[in-house]
Amino acid sequence: MVQHRVVVLLMNIQVDLRGGYYDAGDNIKFGFPMAFTTTMLAWSVIDFGRIMGPELNNAVKAVKWGTDYLLKATATDGVVYVQVGDAISDHNCWERPEDMDTLRTVYKIDKNHPGSDVAGETAAALAAASIVFRTRDPRYSRILLNRAVKVFRFADTYRGAYSDSLFHAVCPFYCDNNGYQDELLWAAAWLTKASKRRQYREYIVRNQVILKAGDTIDEFGWDNKHAGINVLLSKEVLMGKSPSLKSFQNNADTFICSLLPGTSQLQVEYSPGGLIFKAGGSNMQHVTSLSFLLLAYSNYLSHANHVVRCGSKSASPALLKSLARRQVNYILGDNPMKMSYMVGYGPRYPQRIHHRGSSLPSVRVHPARIGCKAGSQYFFSPDPNPNVLVGAVVGGPNTTDAFPDSRPFFQETEPTTYINAPLVGLLAYFAAHP
């Protein structure tokens, strides 16, 4: 990974923002999707780490790479650094990270410029990761949990959407279209699980109506946490520990019915080849995140000997696993195009992905600098990318299962961290249960 030292001079305080993840095929560090990616990596380890075998160590390292950065971004009380780089200037260039000369402006939220959404997701990531490290590194785990508590308090005290505070920096790239309320509940849910403190459960019960806990229950991703909140909290209810959270289990059941083909409650499309499809860009982010919830909830249901009733139909844990497996198989090549949407996997996969580092020649092959606009010849080239980004999952096909293997079609050919992160748990489970 290429590291760039980003130091911001603010009231004589130097802030080191090295590390972290770029969100996708560009050279920007967007804090909102990065935090969600870290949360999902942590959830994957929590629920499926025991069956990851030798890959568990890599998964834990991936979590820590995210949390090390988020600790830096939240090191100053009442401040969260939420973005490194100017998206407009970056997106106007096609250049390698090593050649980057675009603006590296740093953006932050504070009490006068709130961002409960990105701060809430950051708190969730830190809390979830504290569970990952609870026995592996107790000291680091305590640091993560204590920081999560502080960041959540800041997010809840100074409420507002970060896209209102930083509109020109974050929109339309990661503009909060869904509101910040779900991130506050999401953070409280993870703090409940990580801290085992009653105050967070009480916060959820007290605020579930105010913060619209039942809204858009068939959505889950970097911008909308409602389905994830319901599934995560349902585990407590199904284990008989938190009857006060029963409404979340009811919502989780309704979420499951919204994905079940052949029911009147279906809220998603399926392509002719069987891929889940929802409106918006980069469809595979919906596929992996919703499939993760199907699998996680199926495990919770199994342990509670519970099935979901969808009108005249029943959704058993086995059926939910089957639905999730079908999506994973589609991603890996069982689809009408016979195309694996994971780069480097299988005999046929995307060759011209929308990713700067993959599409431009490496510094070893081409040591001379490639300027901002000089990279355009590689962007528009019909040639395959010279560097295979093994393991990256792209946005995927359209509703007819067709796929344009072309860099300019970024919604279909750009990989993102938040597509891959939920897939970690899914692949671990299905590799262990072929």
Automatic annotation (TrEMBL):
<feature type="active site">
    <location>
        <position position="405"/>
    </location>
</feature>
<dbReference type="InterPro" id="IPR012341">
    <property type="entry name" value="6hp_glycosidase-like_sf"/>
</dbReference>
<dbReference type="GO" id="GO:0030245">
    <property type="term" value="P:cellulose catabolic process"/>
</dbReference>
<feature type="active site">
    <location>
        <position position="414"/>
    </location>
</feature>
<feature type="domain" description="Glycoside hydrolase family 9">
    <location>
        <begin position="12"/>
        <end position="427"/>
    </location>
</feature>
<dbReference type="Pfam" id="PF00759">
    <property type="entry name" value="Glyco_hydro_9"/>
</dbReference>
<keyword id="KW-0624">Polysaccharide degradation</keyword>
<keyword id="KW-0119">Carbohydrate metabolism</keyword>
<dbReference type="InterPro" id="IPR018221">
    <property type="entry name" value="Glyco_hydro_9_His_AS"/>
</dbReference>
<feature type="active site">
    <location>
        <position position="354"/>
    </location>
</feature>
<keyword id="KW-0326">Glycosidase</keyword>
<dbReference type="InterPro" id="IPR008928">
    <property type="entry name" value="6-hairpin_glycosidase_sf"/>
</dbReference>
<dbReference type="InterPro" id="IPR001701">
    <property type="entry name" value="Glyco_hydro_9"/>
</dbReference>
<keyword id="KW-0136">Cellulose degradation</keyword>
<keyword id="KW-0378">Hydrolase</keyword>
<comment type="similarity">
    <text>Belongs to the glycosyl hydrolase 9 (cellulase E) family.</text>
</comment>
<dbReference type="GO" id="GO:0008810">
    <property type="term" value="F:cellulase activity"/>
</dbReference>
<dbReference type="InterPro" id="IPR033126">
    <property type="entry name" value="Glyco_hydro_9_Asp/Glu_AS"/>
</dbReference>
<protein>
    <recommendedName>
        <fullName>Endoglucanase</fullName>
        <ecNumber>3.2.1.4</ecNumber>
    </recommendedName>
</protein>
